[in-house]
Amino acid sequence: QVQLVESGGGLVQPGGSLRLSCAASGTIISNNRMGWYRQAPGKQRELVAVISSGGLTNYADSVQGRFTISRDTAKNTVFLQMNSLKPEDTAVYYCNAYRVDANYWGQGTQVTVSS
User: Is the dihedral of CA 34, 57, 53, 20 positive or negative?
Assistant: First the structure.
């Protein structure tokens, strides 16, 4: 059974930083395209960042230069380092593991950027 468990969300002031973690079990992250998505109230879920099985990364334009996705294969964990946070980054952030034959989601972690 595949499980993705996110952690690291919380309340942060504008300009601050957070680091999200996604611990995977039941699947090997380097065999998947791993991604972070977010969903703000009243909006559709959107892609934030992905890292391919080969280690290539891609980012939404809105977070390019501020967020960094990475992985630790020894810990089977994916990270999202978020810097220079803005109020518009407020959302529930979800971890995703994707292969052609499977697609898994975590339960989400809330990130709130507010003064």
Answer: negative
